[in-house]
TrEMBL record, chain C:
Gene Ontology cellular component terms for the protein in this record: plasma membrane
Stretches assigned to the ABC transporter domain: 10-261
Organism: Roseospira marina
SMART domains membership: AAA
Highest taxon listed in the record's lineage: Bacteria
Protein name: ABC transporter ATP-binding protein
Annotated GO MF terms: ATP binding; ATP hydrolysis activity; L-isoleucine transmembrane transporter activity; L-phenylalanine transmembrane transporter activity; L-valine transmembrane transporter activity
Length: 396, 306, 262
């Protein structure tokens, strides 16, 4: 994207200006998400997948993707608003259905966690193979605190993130001191250590796991089905709304971080730490910051996830689950928050919907990531050059 | 604790250490020639064990029942087959990414490991259940007080150590080893000296993977059971051992392997908490070692040119 | 600022660096006067880059002292050396290729950016002002090298040819307004014409920035002759000669060690 966009002709698609194209895409994408979550028959799911693939190809060929990108950067406020509205509309359409809402909320929480990993991995270059462990720390914190203390669950949600960050501090010394492969072994070792610890520790329920009490805000119990306009809604509606709020918050946070000097510093540390040091950048400070912020987000997502599914066990937080989180970041595109959102949807919803691949999902996603790394290493929605202020143009 | 029980733990620790060292040697070889981590190594090991198991079933089927012949054929088939797979992985997944960030290779091989693991679970007949690995070695034993010295353990350790020594001689005393070391030192110069670079890389991956298959067979013979998930932990332990020892250093890998086995044994025996915490303890120590010596106990040569 | 312009800005005294048993830099002594361009010469492996690395804190020297503007900066971290007012470029260009020109230059400006998380995330209006200021500064600086480049500040560096990358690297070093600039073989990998252009730029920059001193590592003798006020020649980590170009070019030891060999 160049600064002299005012002189360049504004791109259009089918004669439509960028904002119109952008809004159209949001409407279509929301409708698609609704249809996809709604689809029961395998044939319909397969047809929908084909439609998505076709739309991606046609959109790419006809230049719709570039017009969309223009809309995202020039009209970011309107576009972001439209996307949130689209998300809320989809949630509202499923207000009485348990399963689609559970899936959608899971997507939102995995997206939040993967955004946290994105800060660590995509920006600061610190690959964290213990994502599921930090997710689990949040969930176990929620389990212990909702059942053993009288703290308000909203505070516990935050404490889940704080606890993940605190335990992350134990790892921070080896992670920051080591580089590349050596740092990888630290997080992998922690991932295995964490799950083994949970399995052998009787206080935390051992292999059977723990109960988690529900989210409650000012007497509003999330596990009770709300009644709106005389209709009984799914209790997952509560979690979907809170999950959406958390995901939006995480997204805005990640975006603003990227579009700031802090994000620039993290990029510099990832790309060349020696040169960064020669320009005064504190490498340790940057890495500790990225690792901690990321873990807070992963931990909070885990805490809410625990409250939602109300029962957690060590098998949900294995090394394979950590790899799945890393796969989301890679598939979406490192450092690309929208890519993370899209990949979270694909990785979570696709196996649930396409039962023939349910059993094969780990195999499928690992092969998909291998292909992605070989042929499209920048991911589905590659990150673009940083625009600090969306829509900003230089004064002539 | 009496001396016999101590001996039992010691023997167990030595067997584990030999296995871990064999896995770690692979990691170190790959890192030496290509500066990459091939994380699928543990799952390649599992594949080796399953290849051996399949060979055993085949032998039974054709009526070869002599255990010595069986163990020999099983080992040879597993080592050769896995060595071939290792070379294929190097050729099609690792070499193409040589210019990419090193992390990408770690990631691609991590995913490959998952793919191998899942493929065995899904496609090997009844692959999600553990398989009873036959006890092909003589089960004679001598009682020394409380300590039972089993013949199969002695054979496993002796052959395992022989393989490690053999690898050491191969790397340090042969022309092939010289070529491998030359490539590890300086790829460009090695090429100019007329060394077939790609071939050496493939051979190195074959050797490392063969060693892993050997460790896989050892594991099967020792525990009399193999399963699709066995490679993950063994690979991780081998990786940790190679890292703790210092990547790219053969002695570091061996040291790391035995160190990890010692940690597990100490974790199981000598520490006040339950023996179930032995892996938690061992990995905790690995993390602590990394904090203390960020490039391993035997430091890796650094090559960051400014 | 009553100091006369001939004052030494950098004084390196008996600086040594050994790697294992190898002595890369052996009791190296030199000084740079304010406003001078000093050429650092020597065959490959003679310790030129090592001296830059030891001065900028990439690794601590094994012995000797470095004084900058009268203050002892021996063995300080790279961050502190940068804060003291020394900026550098690298032999093998070390720009962040996926990032934009602007991003790369702002990395060099790190010392003057507000780094607090709260400021960066929540005070977006103030951040915008700082961003716009940074943009103006970067644009003005790049413009001194190339007006065309100044209009493309938000394009990734990886797409640019080598000479533009070198210019951006120099901008990245200059944006923090250092008093000493270390240029490590800025002409490496460029054609003769490009080198000439770049050297014009460097002379131009020196003329614009009051009191800026430069040490430049360079192989091409024509370049050295044209732009330097003083030269220092290294061989096997030892200084073998120093003085104006005419003096070192006539020195028999230099001819033996360097000119003859190249």
């Amino acid at each position: 994207m160049s600064t002299d966009t005012q002189t360049a002709p504004r791109p259009t698609w089918l004669g439509l200006p960028p904002l119109a194209v952008g809004l159209l895409v949001v409407v279509l994408a929301s409708a698609y998400a609704w249809l996809f979550l709604h689809a029961e028959s395998q044939v319909v799911v397969l047809v929908l997948l084909a439609v998505a693939a076709l739309a991606a190809v046609v959109g790419g060929r006809t230049g719709a993707d570039r017009v969309l990108a223009t809309a995202m950067s020039q009209h970011s406020r309107a576009m972001n608003g439209a996307i949130v509205a689209g998300l809320l509309a989809v949630i509202a359409l499923f207000a009485t259905d348990h399963f689609p809402l559970l899936m959608l909320t899971t997507v939102l929480l995995y997206m939040t966690a993967a955004l946290g990993l994105n800060i660590q991995f995509g920006y600061a270059g610190m690959v964290n193979f213990a994502g599921a462990a930090f997710f689990g720390i949040g969930a176990y914190t929620a389990a212990v605190m909702t059942t053993q203390t009288g703290l308000p669950p909203l505070l516990i949600l935050i404490l889940g993130g704080v606890m993940a960050a605190l335990i992350g501090f134990v790892l921070v010394i080896p992670v920051v001191r080591t580089r590349g492969h050596y740092a990888a072994v630290v997080t992998i070792a922690f991932s295995v250590l964490f799950k083994t610890f949970l399995e052998v520790n009787d206080i935390l329920g051992g292999p059977q796991g723990l109960m988690v009490d529900s989210m409650k805000i000012l007497g509003w119990d999330f596990n009770a089905s709300p009644v709106l306009f005389g209709v009984e809604m799914s209790f997952y509606l509560n979690y979907a709304l809170l999950g959406a709020a958390l995901a939006v918050l995480a997204f805005v946070f990640t975006r603003r971080l990227e579009r700031s000097w802090v994000g620039l510093t993290l990029d510099a540390v990832r790309l060349d730490d020696t040169a960064s040091a020669c320009f005064g950048i504190g490498i340790t400070r940057a890495k500790v910051l990225a690792f901690t912020l990321g873990n807070v987000m992963v931990g909070m997502a885990g805490a809410l996830y625990g409250m939602m599914i109300s029962f957690i066990a060590p098998t949900s937080f294995t090394f394979s689950d950590s790899l799945l989180l890393v796969a989301i970041v890679l598939l979406g595109g490192m450092g690309s928050p929208w890519g993370t959102a899209l990949a979270a949807f694909i990785v979570i919803v696709l196996p649930e919907k396409l039962q023939i691949i349910q059993e094969y999902r780990f195999l499928l996603f690992s092969v998909l990531v291998i292909a992605m790394l070989l042929f499209r290493p920048d991911g589905l929605l590659p990150r673009t050059v940083r625009a600090y202020i969306p829509g900003w143009r230089a004064k002539p | 604790m009496d001396i016999g029980l101590l001996g039992q733990y010691l023997a167990n620790g030595i067997i584990l250490g030999t296995m871990y060292a064999l896995v770690a040697v692979g990691f170190t070889l790959f890192f030496g020639v290509l500066d990459v981590i091939k994380f699928s190594h543990g799952d390649v090991l599992m594949l080796g064990a399953f290849t051996g198991f399949t060979a055993f079933l085949g032998l039974e089927f054709v009526g070869v029942t002599d255990p010595w012949v069986q163990v020999l054929v099983v080992t040879l088939v597993a080592v050769a087959g896995t060595a071939f797979i290792g070379a294929v992985i190097a050729r099609y997944l690792v070499l193409p990414l040589k210019a990419a960030p090193p992390l990408n290779i770690l990631l691609i091989t991590l995913m490959l490991g998952t793919a191998i693991r899942e493929a065995v679970r899904l496609f090997y007949p009844n692959g999600s259940n553990p398989k009873p690995f036959p006890a092909l070695l003589p089960d004679a034993s001598t009682d020394l007080g409380n300590f039972t010295l089993r013949a199969d353990s002695v054979i496993l350790v002796a052959v395992g150590l022989a393989v490690i020594v053999g690898l050491h001689l191969l790397i340090n005393r042969t022309r092939l080893g010289l070529a491998i070391r030359a490539v590890a030192q300086d790829e460009e110069t090695a090429r100019i000296m007329g060394i077939n670079y790609t071939m050496i890389v493939l051979v190195t991956f074959a050797i490392g993977s063969g060693a892993a298959a050997f460790a896989g067979i050892m594991n099967g013979l020792y525990y009399n059971e193999i399963n699709f998930g066995m490679g993950l932990l063994l690979g991780l332990i081998g990786f940790s051992a190679a890292i703790v020892g210092g990547l790219g250093n053969l002695y570091g890998a061996i040291l790391g392997g035995f160190l990890f086995a010692a940690l597990q044994t100490i974790g199981a025996v000598a520490l006040p908490f339950a023996s179930a915490y032995k892996d938690v303890f061992a990995f905790g120590v690995v993390i602590a070692v990394m904090a203390w010596k960020p490039t391993g106990l035997i430091a890796e040569r650094t090559s960051d040119r400014v | 600022m009553t100091r006369p312009t001939t004052d030494a800005v950098l004084e390196i005294d008996a600086l040594s660096k050994t790697f294992g048993g190898v002595t890369a830099l052996d009791a190296f002594t030199m000084s740079v006067r304010r406003g001078d361009i000093v050429g650092l010469l020597g065959p490959n492996g003679s310790g030129k880059t090592t001296s830059f690395n030891a001065v900028t804190g990439i690794f601590p020297p094994s012995g000797g002292t470095v004084r900058f503007d009268g203050a002892d900066i021996t063995g300080l971290s790279p961050q502190k050396v940068y804060a003291a007012g020394i900026a550098r470029t690298f032999q093998r260009s070390r720009l962040c290729l996926p990032l934009s020109i602007f991003d790369n230059i702002m990395i060099g400006n790190h010392g003057r950016l507000t780094k607090g998380l709260w400021f960066n995330l929540m005070r977006r209006r103030a951040f915008r002002r700082e961003f716009e200021q940074g943009y103006e500064d970067a644009r003005a600086l790049v413009r001194t090298f190339s007006t065309a480049l100044a209009d493309r500040l938000f394009e990734p560096v990886g797409a640019l040819p080598m000479i533009e990358r070198r210019r951006i690297e120099i901008c990245r070093a200059l944006i923090s307004r250092p008093r000493l600039l270390l240029l490590d073989e800025p002409s490496a990998g460029m054609t003769h014409d490009e080198t000439t252009q770049l050297m014009d730029d460097i002379l131009d920059v020196r003329g614009r920035i009051e009191g800026l001193s430069i040490i430049i590592i360079e192989h091409e003798m024509g370049v050295i002759e044209r732009i330097t006020d003083q030269c220092v020649v290294l061989n096997y980590g030892r200084k073998i000669c120093e003085g104006p170009y005419a003096h070192i070019a006539a020195d028999p030891e230099v001819q033996r060690a360097y000119l003859g060999a190249e």
